[in-house]
Amino acid sequence: MRRRKYWGWGYEDEGLSSAEEARLGSLLATFFGVTPAPGSAPPPVEALGLPASRLPSPPPASFASSVSAYDRVLHAGGRSYRDLVRFRSGRVDHPPDLVAFPASVSELVACLEWVDRVGAAVIPFGGGTSVTGGVEPAVPARFSGTVSLDLSRLNRVLAVDPLAQLVHVEAGILGPDLDAALKPHGLSIRHYPQSYYFSTVGGWIATRSGGHYSTLLGKIDTRVCALEVVAPNGTVGATRKLPSSSIGPDPNALWIGSEGLLGVITKAWLRVHPLPRFKKTVGVQFQELGHALEAARRIVQAGLYPVHLRVLDPFEAMMSAAFTSGLFEEARPVLILGFESAAQEVDAMLEAALAQAAACGGKTASARGTKADEVEGWRHIFFRQPYVRDTLIGWGLIADTFETAIPWDRAEAFYHEVREATLEAVEEQCGAGAVLGRTTHAYPDGVAFYFTFFGRGRPGEQLEQWSAIKKAATDAVARGGGTASHHHACGRDHAPWSEQELPSIWKAALLGAKAALDPRGAMNPGVVFP
Amino acid sequence: MRRRKYWGWGYEDEGLSSAEEARLGSLLATFFGVTPAPGSAPPPVEALGLPASRLPSPPPASFASSVSAYDRVLHAGGRSYRDLVRFRSGRVDHPPDLVAFPASVSELVACLEWVDRVGAAVIPFGGGTSVTGGVEPAVPARFSGTVSLDLSRLNRVLAVDPLAQLVHVEAGILGPDLDAALKPHGLSIRHYPQSYYFSTVGGWIATRSGGHYSTLLGKIDTRVCALEVVAPNGTVGATRKLPSSSIGPDPNALWIGSEGLLGVITKAWLRVHPLPRFKKTVGVQFQELGHALEAARRIVQAGLYPVHLRVLDPFEAMMSAAFTSGLFEEARPVLILGFESAAQEVDAMLEAALAQAAACGGKTASARGTKADEVEGWRHIFFRQPYVRDTLIGWGLIADTFETAIPWDRAEAFYHEVREATLEAVEEQCGAGAVLGRTTHAYPDGVAFYFTFFGRGRPGEQLEQWSAIKKAATDAVARGGGTASHHHACGRDHAPWSEQELPSIWKAALLGAKAALDPRGAMNPGVVFP
Q1: Taking CB atoms and an 8 Å cutoff, what residues of chain A touch B237?
Q2: pTM of the entire structure?
Q3: Residue B456 touches chain A, beta carbons under 8 Å
Q4: ipTM over the 0.90 cut-off
Q5: If both were cysteines, with which of A275, A405, B277, B422 could A448 make a disulfide (CB 3.0 to 4.6 Å apart)?
């Protein structure tokens, strides 16, 4: 049976090809002036020397569970840089004492009841792709142990409603399985976070995830029509399937982004979309980033509805082209613009958008000969990036990403502030390195930025280097008025910044809600609230 | 100084013209076979014999307030049928003991502190246009009295940001004042609930209001970028101005629709829109309602973005035409379709939508000679309808509206179920009457229906008749899977149905949040939770 890597992205038999690794290596040699050498392989699970489970053994038969070393290590964290560096070096700080695999809501309720009886904490695992410490069983010492709740057996498609364009699924289903069930109906979720192949619907909802087509179609927040949730006390509740309502605050909104604090999302009715028949993607080159951002703003404010719209800064554009071509060339900011429709041609929309871009000084790819590779190459490597990061981590480098959002009035200044603060920290920590930026989502009132940073790691000190850079970057984001995360969630990693981002009145309200449902505070303690 | 009617809509010098009354009268004579006669005029405020205020006198000077009979009566309820029938007959069940008019957040905090000290309950009044009992000071006996919180002095525009298309306002501002401040910037709120002239931004947010252009632009939920709220304990908190975030559940969503339960909304950053330069509205006639609904569904699912889209059932279409022309003619279902844009022509969008409508059997107005009046006449009377209702109430008739929403898979069947149950109750209670229906908002996954019912009232028994009809209608909505309100909020009138509509787990969470902020439960007790 194919197993997921405990120390990296995807399955054990997956990763970059030798050719890709060679290209990446030569790219780094050119860029950083170093010839990276593969580090030592991660230790086998058996060599990790996990402490024994602290919970009563054997666990009850009322729900499926495992205490195998592999299962415990796989559920000991997510896929953040911090997680992977530790795992690769054989360091597993917080293995869960038990991994539960409920195959039904009643098994899940039985699990929660047992957890309550034995005084443990529960961490909903989703697909385990959190990059913000959202699934690491790092909980206060008052708990007798930790249970990681793996929902991968709750993965059925319960109903497809092509008329209302809704699908009813269990929350443990993965992105590709959902799309496979929708395809015969001519539908698709059209929600493509980078974690698409390994993340779950429940995880998307619990983290307010965004994806590749979220400029038109919105983050997962807008796709949720109804939810079933199980409270820590075992109460099951479902919201009504409605396009909208005004009976009190939106009941779904309390669980969307709740990161497990208020219980477990077990089912969802999601809004889905007809498969596009008409598609157009174009790249537009600009002399200056500010002009590209202005074009992006004008396009979304003109009501032109691009399904995706991204601005690559010159560094991102250069790396993107170099990864495809192997060559470094001075690059200009690029606006990538995609339209799609299941019902009608999109040419008029695209033309109107290109007119807006031209008015800001943009030259379309064909007019200026910008390589189509820059456009398609970027998309091609989107889903490969986590594997690239694995290789970089294996070579001992610092390599991570973070993302944020800001209103348009501050967009360009904010980009420079954050990039410069991050670059300064990278240079201080690593001697040399790079920070690349792009926008990932555009709204009429603002934009989401996504930054990637690289730097040389000092063997054994990478986590300290990374922490200093992460702190400098997130401090700059907070100072500039941005959010600590636009679509990666708060987790444990951003919790120190939630305090200044969110009003105390909101925290009091949310903790009041949690106290009512989870008097022991046993659901994923440590996320959101530091 | 111009004063608002305590017993009806708008200012004391406003109402239907004699010509409008005459036309309405002849229309009713034709329709109901009765010649309505004006009832007695509402008693003057001085004759109402209000009980003395139960709260300490004089109130503190730290915030402006009033105990005048007029102010107490004006704040004794909203503008529901139930409210107005009672007021007109001189029955004022729950006058507040004090009306507070804070002119600043610090005055508001002083008011909340005083209320806490004297053990009273607080009812945020907004513009007082609630049609669901949301502002009636009907509270449990454990409170020493009631304070109605009028925010009309917190009505400043604090900032307009044309770049990010955002406006920062105090929550007591009325719709027209907001638009007047936006107009010099080429912007508009484009949110037109029927209460637009008399309702406040804070009220819109607290009730999840919808408006005339909400099909494209969304209900007020989607317009809220950031909020300032004051908790019952006097804590002031503001969310950050962000296009989106994933740091915990959306903090705005807890207050959007909270109907005063969690504190007072004092400021908002709202997303606004450029004034449209290109506009087209067309009416399309169908042989059958089901075909019109199918056209509506196809259009919104095709991603064609009409700014408004309404389907009038044959009864609504007939009454609408008759009100304008004075003539009854057999009418067919009508689809009203409007497109607008500030940036580009909308003809291509409109044509694509009309092609969808034609594929469902629709004939456009020009092609079939449908009177343009049917289209424009409907919009013309939109803002007049509350005055029409006043006249009907004055004539002793039963005349009210209710609205709901449902997914597309149930839309047509649900319409018939709800309409028939309501008509049956109207006929049982009134002998004769009518129920008209239209859709007001369309979504890819569902649609909002709005029903109007009329019937003969028995003098002095109208409230009992109305209650029986309201119960039959709302029971049918609940049985059919709809929501008790799509955009009028829960208030006190729909609270009996919230129990079955919302899961208990959500109620527990919301009451937990409330307990944390409002341990005395003094904020608008009685709304949402029966």
Answers
A1: 503-506
A2: 0.96
A3: no
A4: yes
A5: A405
